[in-house]
Amino acid sequence: MSLEPQVQELVEHLFRHQAGRMLATLSHIFGLEYLDLAEEVVQDALVQALRQWPFHGIPDNPRLWLLQVARNKALDRLRRQASLRRKKHEIEQRFQQRQSLLETSESGEAEELVDEQLAMIFACCNPALPREARVALTLKAVSGFSVTEIARAFLSEESTIAQRIVRAKRRIREAGITLILPPPEELPTRLDSVLQVLYLLFSEGYSAHAGENLVREDLCGEAIRLTQLLAARPSTALPKVHALLALFYFQAARLSTRVDGDGNLLLLEEQQRTDWDHGLVHLGLIQLELSAEGDELSEYHLQAGIAVVHATSSCFAHTNWPYLLELYDQLLARAPSPVVALNRAIALSMVEGPEAALDSLNALSQEPALKNYYLLPAVKADLFRRLGQTTSAADSYRQALSYPCTEPERRFLLKRLHDLNPND
Amino acid sequence: MPKFMLILHSAPHGLDKASPEEIQKIIEKFESWKEKLAAADRLVSSDKLKEEGGKVITVKNGQMSVVDGPYSEAKEVVAGYFMFRAANYDEAVEMTRDCPALQFGRIEIRQTDPMGCGGE
Hints:
heterodimer, A: mainly alpha, Serine Threonine Protein Phosphatase 5, Tetratricopeptide repeat, elongated, B: alpha+beta, two-stranded antiparallel ribbon, 2 helices
């Protein structure tokens, strides 16, 4: 065949997303207890694309092509799977339904197909699964990450992640978890478990890194994509979903300005606010408005409330610090956490001065969660620095450096320490 | 301009472990490699060969035998071919240097010989 000169581009992360979508579809067709089989079929289909597309080009509707191949590969495997063979006719019919949906809805996604993915998210985040396993399984089964990629993103061992996933799958079978969207009366609590996983995904991706590890930024994108799915369906779009999505948008707007060209960390006050992604800020504002429906005030509402203050302030000094302090107090009252208290101290320092903030931090030094956490001494060091207490500041920076932190964070602390003692 | 055929002797390994993202990246590499050839109006055609169902015919002592194969499980099979135009072998090699198929096996480059009487 002759080749067309124009090249069709693939949507970014198409395969990853499509792996998740196909797995959701196949798991619905076979039943969640056949998750392993479904995974094999998805892999077969993706590999087939790699064998075919280089020679014949990218098909007009890549998603449909992949699903058709998955269907053929699945029917092929059914011959060897006695328990499913009996349902062959039913299975073929279900494939046919999905193919028609993909044929007719080229732009946008058919609601039925979105619901399949949502049901998969709820299954992977089921409270019957161990908490750590929920995150790994969601990334694997919903987001199409490989075990290697998950391990890289979470800076952990491949074998650890692999084991978590194996256990989670076993638990799914033992607990008889099925692919059904939770009924309305169970939705709020089941949703909490899902949102917690999405929040973890985003935070992990957002935590400072040197920029060489792109997988981590993909975590933010994936958390946003899945939250968008929840926010777009009336059955799952509770106000707290919109609040979480707003928070993600505000944070993501700053993502690229958190490091300079050399991969060095930039503090909020040093970031180039004109470089923030104002399109994302705008999207965040829309979600924030949607989150205001109803009378629920979740943690995510408060966090989004804090993030919007930063996202819409013209500069660090002109930030409404008293209001932020109020929000932090509310957040602390609702969900006490030493990390929130640490952030509150920074707001307090801007309202009442560094000394008041240092006083509030003394109470925190006994917190087990902050033991060996570089941020506590790093914040203290900065407060001492602002008070002109150079010796105490240097001691605190050195203490911070003795705790584990990422490479850009370490460079940042070293630079601060160096700036204190130019002759050191 | 002379035509060259790239015969892809492919020995795919580890593909069942490749992540969706990795698979997409390889396909994208193929696309941009082909785009370069197409932009220079060098690309003629390409085809993939079916993995299963090949036949090997041999005649021995006047007896024709037809057997199945080569099998895709074999260490190496011809996965497909690309045909493009190049000035000479040197240029053809140069154009193949960044062909992504090289990561899956060797590539044989052969010039077509429509005249069959020697010379270019």
